[in-house]
Design a protein that fits this description.
This protein has about 220 residues and is an alpha/beta fold. It is about 35% helix and about 20% strand.
């Protein structure tokens, strides 16, 4: 019988209806209006699932909520050591993360810094262009849907001003995002939300090696 690690978190809050409970792990689903991104539980669910675990929830309106995380208990010391060695072999890059959602910026920035990269962030296209004018960046991650200047507009401007700077588009649609023929050469890839750590790592490596268009 496989040993497993089970964690339970319980609160005494408002609880959730069945409709809400069935959707809480969907990317970008939130009951917090403009104050929530709808990514936290979706990202957590993805991480737990990739580690062969299970993430479940029990809740009733007015009765609070219980989350349960069920993970296989394994000795991962040797695997962790090997992975750290591999990650440190990758060349470090100066990366700019552009997204109008603070949570999304911080989530991706944390991933990139864990991989040894130097990261700055911007909340929109105009701020990003200001930072690009003052410093050298190897790569820009930019969200597709932003106010004032969307991701495509920013990518085109970067291509015009800094044609050697790699650009990766962030979108909730992932590989299904349509790309106009004239725009194929201005980006190096498309990455979906919620972010997958392994896919981001692979995308960075491929962009660094080839600079070819890569979609995740």
């Amino acid at each position: 019988v496989e040993d497993r690690l089970i964690l339970k978190f319980k609160d005494t809050g408002l609880g959730m209806t069945e409709d809400v409970r069935e959707r809480i792990f969907e990317p970008f689903y939130t009951t917090k209006g403009v104050h929530g991104t709808g990514l936290g539980l979706a990202v957590s669910y993805g991480i737990i699932e990739r580690h062969e675990g299970r993430f479940s929830v029990e809740s009733e309106p007015g009765q609070g909520t219980t989350f349960e995380i069920d993970l296989p208990a394994v000795d991962s010391a040797s695997k962790t050591e090997k992975k750290v060695v591999v990650l440190h072999k990758a060349p470090s890059m100066n990366i700019l993360v552009v997204d109008d959602e603070e949570f999304v910026r911080e989530t991706l920035a944390d991933m990139l810094m864990m991989l040894g990269h130097t990261v700055e962030s911007a909340s929109g296209g105009r701020e990003a262009l200001q930072k690009l004018s003052r410093g050298d960046f190897d790569l820009v991650f930019t969200d597709l849907s932003m106010p004032e200047m969307d991701g495509w507009e920013l990518a085109r401007e970067i291509h015009r001003q800094r044609p050697d700077t790699n650009v990766i588009l962030i979108t909730g649609h992932g590989a299904a995002t349509p790309v106009a023929p004239d725009d194929k050469n201005i980006i190096n890839g498309i990455v979906g939300k919620p972010f997958d750590f392994d896919q981001v790592t692979e995308l960075l490596a491929e962009t660094r090696r080839h600079g070819d268009a890569v979609t995740r």
